[in-house]
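If your schedule permits, I should be very grateful for your opinion on a structural question. I have a record of one protein: its chain in single-letter code and its fold written as discrete structure tokens. Kindly check, if you would, that the fold set down in the tokens agrees with what the sequence suggests. I remain grateful for any guidance, and I place the record below:

***
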Amino acid sequence: MTRRIGVFLATLLCVTLVWRQDANAMGEGDPVTLSIRVGAEYTDNRDSLPDKDDNTDFNIAPRIDAFLRGERLTLNFFYEPIYRYRTDPSPIQNESELHHDVGLNVDVQAAPRLVFFGRERFNVTDDPAIVEEGTTYRRDSSYTMNRAELGARWMVGKLGRLSASGRHRIKMYEERLVARESDEDRWVAEMSYWQQLSPTLGMSLTGSYEEFDFRSRLGLQRGFSAVSGGASLEKALGAGVRAAVWAGYKELTYDDSALGRDSAPYANALLRFETHPGLRVFVRGGYTLRESGVYPYVSQTHASVGLDGQWDLSARWTLDVGGVLRQSDYDADTVPTGIAGPAYRGGEEDAIVLWGAATFAFNETTSLMLRQQHENVDSDVGATFKRNATRLELSKKF
């Protein structure tokens, strides 16, 4: 709890200092927005396991947004507590949970061609232990997660832009035994240069350094450092059609010296279509070497292809549809020393996710959304399952 309070107070201190620094430039009547979301979600597979159990979640999320704009400074602060109630929790879940989401975005125009920016996102998940008749069924899984970014953008010449940023993400569990196995820490430093080559063509060069680490009470070294570099091209192919391609090379050096190093090219592509009024379509694809999503592997190669679109049928009706196919490849050679065995022989995990949603706007401040999602996961390294979820949510701005 001490860590939670410390990070939260630091966030409030940043808000106060920034506010006071540019207070003379702030005009009266800067907007403060209040809103609320009330929703329910039914799923036929509560735990994403082969054996299905259904459940309905009810949640309520009030939110406050504050926007402060000065001559050189723009600030946005928001806070959203989220209460969730489960109708049929599993033996290792709580019937109710409370979450907190706090964010701060700051942009400072330090000079006509130089902008500094900061981003802060702080989450608290209150998920306490489950104890019945003296038996602990699940340890305290409450955690805090903080994501911070600092950076700068400098306009070079008439058509160039140099950007540099540093990002940090940390996830800390409240209970010590859980924290010793599951706490995460990630640092990323990145620099890029963008050049507009013509009215319809631009390119960039990017380099980054990353460190990722899991804590482990067993002494497993599941961290790594990574260096990557690449280039991108973005091209307007016609009226309402744009394409972008990123490609490069990435090398991982594992903290466990017995695992050595791993490297692979990476690539991402995006096609955006806005050829009809009110219709937006995106086609995406990518391949990269990245951190693992399955214990105890350290890394994975991840490929995905997706399609999603949004159609404004009228002033009140909006439709969203989409789907993504993901494939992850886990190698037994990325299992840390001291835990290797036949149980961790590696394999693939394939996932298909499809979704569709319809939103009806009663007016400019009130809307109702119905969303349906289907997941189909086939895994050699984890659970194979199918899951359907239906969500109904009412949103209101005041």
Notes: Residues 2-21 form the longest helix (20 residues). The CA atoms of residues 8 and 212 lie 24 Å apart. Confidence is low (pLDDT under 50) at residues 1-29, 128-140. The radius of gyration is 23 Å.
